[in-house]
Design a protein that fits this description.
The chain contains nine helices and 17 strands. By secondary structure, the chain is an alpha/beta fold. The protein folds into two domains: 192 residues, Quinone Oxidoreductase, Chain A, domain 1 (Alpha-Beta Complex); 131 residues, Rossmann fold, CATH 3.40.50.720. Helix 4 crosses helix 5 and helix 4 packs across helix 8.
């Protein structure tokens, strides 16, 4: 099978021919049709996440169809369309797993990081962590839901849980890319007001945010026209944490939604006072996947995607790094599917 392999951090992926993997007990062999490109892939390739299983096939927003069932798999069928997310498996036994917080399991494994992912014609997945995908989305459109959508949804769910019950909120979103353009539609559907924050001078990014439901769009170093109830930071920029704290009102919540962020600078305690909260969000749970993939077609969420062929994964990563497209990049693995 064709695959794009990372041999070492900070090196380009190279196209190679690998044997089709065999599904083990409880696993599925999936014929990949599309795979979203995520900023986490950049963190892996750029060496900002320290423990990739090299050589590695990255990619963790995987869409495909089941090609074969491993021993013991009875609840899935060959030909079923599935999505494979970042969280590839967990121990199932620790307190976090028993509390349905398997995203915090110390034995968790991750797609495209500790096991081969979707920048290839085939991959294997634990049947427990392969989601049935909703109708109404083609393979390219559904791919960004599997990380940008799911991590955004978890950040959204935990942010709202920390706020007092209210009919509507003013929510800031810092970094308006793949996750924010999905989550903005979720928030707008629920009757909340989104204030987008983009790179200073990014006029096109501000217009993109307004087209997806943001009531206003600002440069990220500016304050909104009214205090926010909460802010979600998608950009991996630690400097945005004190900026967001100054933007939220008393008892406001600042949620850091990325897996990696540059160092957060020191800031005055006064910016945190009045019971403001800073929290992080880690990975996703199966509950997040089931809830969000049921919600997305009801809204309905519409994703903006830029397709790339498999051989141009490096171009997609470079364009994401430089912010050259709106929405999400998606690798077309099987153009005939």
């Amino acid at each position: 099978m064709r695959a794009m392999v990372l041999d070492a951090a900070k090196s380009p992926l190279r196209e190679v021919d690998l044997p089709i993997p065999e599904p083990g007990p409880g696993q599925l062999l999936v014929k990949v049709t599309a795979c979203g490109v995520c900023r986490t892939d950049l963190h892996v390739v750029d060496g900002e996440l320290p423990e990739p299983a090299l050589p590695l096939v990255p990619g963790h927003q995987v869409v495909g169809r089941i090609a074969a069932l491993g021993p013991g798999v009875k609840a899935r069928r060959v030909g079923e369309r599935v999505g494979i997310p970042w969280l590839a498996g967990s121990c199932g036994l620790c307190p976090y797993c028993r509390e349905e917080r398997e995203n915090l399991c110390r034995e968790a494994r991750y797609t495209g990081y500790q096991q081969d992912g979707g920048f290839a014609e085939y991959c294997v997945a634990d049947q427990r962590y392969a989601f049935a995908l909703p109708d109404g989305f083609d393979d390219l459109q559904v791919a960004p839901l599997l990380c940008a959508g799911l991590i955004g949804y978890r950040a959204w769910r935990l942010t709202l849980a920390a706020l007092p019950p209210r009919r509507s909120y003013d929510i800031g979103m810092y970094g308006f890319g793949a996750a924010a353009h999905i989550l903005c539609q979720v928030a707008d559907h629920a009757g909340h007001r989104v204030h987008a924050f983009v790179r200073p001078g990014d006029v096109a990014g501000a217009a993109f945010a307004r087209r997806h439901g943001a009531v206003e769009a600002h440069d990220a170093d500016k304050l909104p026209t009214r205090p926010l109830d909460a802010a979600i930071i998608f950009a991996p920029v630690g400097d945005l944490v004190p900026t967001a704290l100054r933007a939220v009102d008393r008892a406001g919540v600042v949620t850091c939604a990325g897996i990696h962020m540059s160092d957060i600078p020191a800031f005055p305690y006064a910016d945190l006072w009045h019971e403001k909260v800073v929290r992080s969000v880690a990975n996703l749970t199966r509950r997040d996947g089931e809830e969000f993939l049921a919600l997305a077609p009801r809204i309905p969420v519409r994703t903006t995607v830029r397709p790339y062929p498999l051989a141009q994964v490096n171009d997609a990563l470079d364009d994401l790094r430089a912010g050259r497209f709106e929405g999400a990049a998606v690798i077309v693995v099987d153009p005939d599917a």
